[in-house]
Design goal:
Blueprint lengths: L2 H13 L10 H18 L3 H16 L4 H17 L7 H4 L7 H11 L15 H4 L5 H5 L4 H13 L5 H14 L2 H17 L3 H14 L4
Length: 217
Amino acid sequence: MSASRRWLLAFVLLAAGCGSKPRAPDWQMNAYDSLARYTSAFLEGRAPAAAAEFARARAALAGTGQPGLVARAELTRCALLVATLAFESCAGFEALRADAPAAERAYADYLAGRIGAEQVPMLPPQHRPLAQGAADPAGLGAITDPVARLVAAGVLFRTGRASPDVLVVASDTASAQGWRRPLLAWLGVRALRAEQAGALEEAQQLRRRMALAAGER
């Protein structure tokens, strides 16, 4: 079980106040399993499966009537969009913002690239250095969970702090996991920058990799 999935499970259990009970309600395991399957399907580029799993997870969490639980699910979706350089509005979370805990509001602002200094301590520990201004590839590589690493790289890109080395770390992370969707996004950015720099041979090589990952070769 990856660190990000353990984090999701711990949140669901603790936020519901059931972390110490011997047998958790079915909705907790159902929501966790669906969120885990959603994450895998989304990153692998299986959009219909991802949409179905997210809907199941959200429905299970909404059944509790606890906005914080549903907000965390929506933030999971928003974080994965950032990891794949799809900078859409986090509409699902924003609809719940007024009732979401402060930590969830801080994470949403971090994903949007507008976090305040007073919010940084509320972030997951692996994201705090980058939120405080660090942008070196070594710091990014020190994030052991690959999902969190891609999310952090996406935030760096969104805030204009992604160096060429950051792009390499991100694309290598996606490649190592076999995650087609973020791989195509990060290789695409690298190819575009190579073209803009006049490095046409490098750009062509990157686009060949993209074609292979997309099943076009």
